[in-house]
């Protein structure tokens, strides 16, 4: 695989980041994941805009213009012959001797790579998944897409050990979001609920694109938080992300959702999203 590191396209074995990189020592950096379907970047303007915002929130300079960053992404797709998968971008504050406080003038470390993987018509998308519920262990600024992901790593590992494919996180009696996805339910009267954007969740790019499609198709949306009890009583449930697209959730904890199969509205949303991507 050809990756992008230190301003160059190099084979992955030749790519190295320094010991004193603050991404490594402090989790002091941000990332993005964009889907590639049919060799094309999906919702990439939204991902690049969020990348820029995440960096600005941490006062890390944008490592290159958004146009130049997209050129890196496109070059990686072409050089690796990527048809379906993801492109990962990461920028950290840069390298400096270890200290919580950082000196002025650091040069961000910017890397990017592709991952070939099936994104469309996966088993999870066709059959739906079971998600666990667990307390949200993360910090207070989840709207910033930082590489500080230990909460998600541990929550997902725990869920997997208990036989679940993924996990939805809870705080103050409400679901915040999935460990790496946006959470939605459909009420018995056909309304789609998903939490409004705030520092409590990551503002999903797939969410933004999907809500637009819902509006276009005249579907009812309500942006508000919902409780585990509401989710367990829902007619349908699903989650979205760049890497899972629209994935039905057919069990939450021990509670089967609907008839245990992907819901009709969820399946309609899967095809609307793919249509728009195609
Ligand atoms: N995760 N919420 C969290 C906590 C996430 O990590 C993600 C994405 C999302 C969905 O965002 P989007 O629709 O923009 O992908 C919501 C990516 C895929 C990851 O960490 O690999």
TrEMBL record:
Keyword tags: Amino-acid biosynthesis, Aminotransferase, Branched-chain amino acid biosynthesis, Pyridoxal phosphate, Transferase
A GO term for molecular function: branched-chain-amino-acid transaminase activity
Keyword Zinc: no
Keyword Transferase listed: yes
Cofactor(s) needed for function: pyridoxal 5'-phosphate
Pathway assignment: Amino-acid biosynthesis; L-leucine biosynthesis; L-leucine from 3-methyl-2-oxobutanoate: step 4/4; Amino-acid biosynthesis; L-valine biosynthesis; L-valine from pyruvate: step 4/4; Amino-acid biosynthesis; L-isoleucine biosynthesis; L-isoleucine from 2-oxobutanoate: step 4/4
EC annotation from Swiss-Prot or TrEMBL: 2.6.1.42
BP terms from Gene Ontology: amino acid biosynthetic process; branched-chain amino acid biosynthetic process
One annotated Gene Ontology cellular component of this protein: cytosol
Highest taxon listed in the record's lineage: Bacteria
Catalytic reactions on record: L-isoleucine + 2-oxoglutarate = (S)-3-methyl-2-oxopentanoate + L-glutamate; L-valine + 2-oxoglutarate = 3-methyl-2-oxobutanoate + L-glutamate; L-leucine + 2-oxoglutarate = 4-methyl-2-oxopentanoate + L-glutamate
Cited InterPro entries: Aminotrans_IV, Aminotransferase-like, BCAT-like_C, BCAT-like_N, Class-IV_PLP-Dep_Aminotrnsfr
Record's function text: Acts on leucine, isoleucine and valine.
Family, as annotated: Belongs to the class-IV pyridoxal-phosphate-dependent aminotransferase family.
PANTHER family associated with the record: AMINO-ACID AMINOTRANSFERASE, AMINODEOXYCHORISMATE LYASE
Protein name in the entry: Probable branched-chain-amino-acid aminotransferase
Organism: Rhizobium terricola
């Amino acid at each position: 695989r050809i990756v992008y590191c230190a301003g160059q396209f190099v084979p992955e074995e030749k790519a190295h980041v320094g010991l004193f990189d603050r991404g490594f020592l402090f989790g002091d950096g941000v990332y993005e994941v964009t889907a590639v379907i049919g060799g094309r970047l999906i919702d990439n303007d939204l991902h690049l805009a969020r990348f820029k915002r995440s960096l600005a929130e941490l006062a890390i300079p944008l490592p290159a213009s958004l146009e130049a960053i997209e050129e890196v992404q496109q070059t990686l797709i072409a050089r690796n012959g990527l048809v379906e998968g993801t492109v990962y971008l990461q920028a950290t504050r840069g390298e400096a001797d270890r200290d919580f406080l950082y000196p002025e003038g650091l040069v961000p470390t910017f890397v990017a790579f592709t991952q070939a993987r099936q994104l469309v018509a996966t088993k999870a998308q066709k059959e739906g998944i079971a998600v666990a519920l667990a307390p949200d262990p993360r910090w207070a600024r989840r709207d910033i897409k930082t590489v500080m992901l230990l909460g998600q790593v541990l929550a997902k590992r725990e869920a997997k050990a208990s036989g679940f494919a993924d996990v939805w996180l809870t705080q103050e009696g409400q679901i915040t979001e999935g460990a790496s996805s946006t959470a939605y339910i459909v009420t018995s009267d056909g309304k789609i609920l998903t939490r409004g954007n705030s520092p409590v969740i990551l503002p999903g790019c797939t969410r933004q694109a999907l809500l637009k499609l819902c509006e276009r198709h005249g579907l009812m949306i309500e942006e508000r938080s919902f409780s585990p009890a509401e989710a367990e009583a829902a007619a349908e449930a699903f989650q979205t992300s760049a890497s899972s697209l629209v994935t039905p959730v057919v069990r939450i904890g021990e509670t089967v959702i609907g008839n245990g199969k992907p819901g009709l509205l969820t399946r309609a949303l899967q095809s609307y999203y793919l249509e728009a991507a195609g």
